[in-house]
Request: fold
Amino acid sequence: MTENKETYTIGIIGGTGKEGKGLAYRWVQAGHHVIIGSRQAEKAQRAVEELKALLEEGGELEGMENSEAVAACDIAVVTVPYAAHRPTLEGLKGVLDGKIVVDVVVPIVPPKVTKVQMPSAGSVAQEAQEILGENCRVVDAFQNISYERLMNQDEDVDCDVLVCGKSKAAREVVLGLVADTGLKGWDAGPIENAVVVEGMTSVLIGLNIQHKVKASGIRITGISEQE
Amino acid sequence: MTENKETYTIGIIGGTGKEGKGLAYRWVQAGHHVIIGSRQAEKAQRAVEELKALLEEGGELEGMENSEAVAACDIAVVTVPYAAHRPTLEGLKGVLDGKIVVDVVVPIVPPKVTKVQMPSAGSVAQEAQEILGENCRVVDAFQNISYERLMNQDEDVDCDVLVCGKSKAAREVVLGLVADTGLKGWDAGPIENAVVVEGMTSVLIGLNIQHKVKASGIRITGISEQE
Reply:
């Protein structure tokens, strides 16, 4: 795990699920101050206790109600289920203003989980950008990885992370956060490309079902490691 | 190169470009009968002569005008530039009726070649399906590979092929054709997933520009080779 030069206060909205806990586990170890957010502060606190038991070397980790977590953070990360995406962001719009918002949500609509189905905005990231307004910078990342694997420090997550969204500078900050989880990130371009990043999850779920595996992934090839 | 048990007559619409020639070169060697199609039969014939000079062991290869190539084939492959996609298919609609149509076209719209921009149907494949009607089975494949590399038998194309489209049976036939080019194909699901397969090309072009390489690609991970 390479340490980013900059450390941030990262607020994870809906951070008590496997996505939020997996990311928090790795970011705390990389030296970031992480706040797990939840609709109920007590639930966030329980997730923090659970994670602290795993973090042998400690680290900066707190639990708060979602809006407090966002108010206190530099960078917000959204890890709610898809059905809660719009209402959650509408409720937090004011406090998210001006921040980088890392959207991790995938538009999986049961029962057709292997078929790409995007919201009318074009993608979840574009929906978030519409709700939050131009003052926010929404960046997609971590849509295609297996979160359970993040919770084991020794586990190799055999999947790269595609990062796309509004503002190249914001994408670069998020690429640093990806590196801090121990994964390889790639700049996948503007927010219009979010349909590819989010839709790939349906393709991978289809491959998981066909091949009876739990965590198919993607790697980018043809670019040497050195540069 | 593994040989498919079945051999087909494959008609390549607009087959005189690098895509068509690269695919023809490998399919002829796998034992298929390939017909290069072009708007002008003489142009198709010139591409055939060029390929025959490279095919040391010969093989079944002909050149014809596009509609004749389609009429004579079992499986049609569309490799025209994006701007010619709709008019070409509208012109060949009758003769394509009932066939598997492998669509290789990517919706790259200059100057924004790194931004995903889909036709109103949702993707090029869905546009083709709309034009050709339900009796055709349109399948996307080969959107993300470097065609120049197909022309050298010894060159390793470090990129998997995502195959999606109408009908699982048609996708399976196309996965066989992918294997016959020496590449690894994956069933990426229904035609609604074409936006991911086609859009990935814009992401890879962006990575090529950023990293000053010619042929970034993708590999699927987490699925063992044995099965």
Summary: The radius of gyration of chain B is 16 Å. The longest strand of chain B covers residues 33-38.
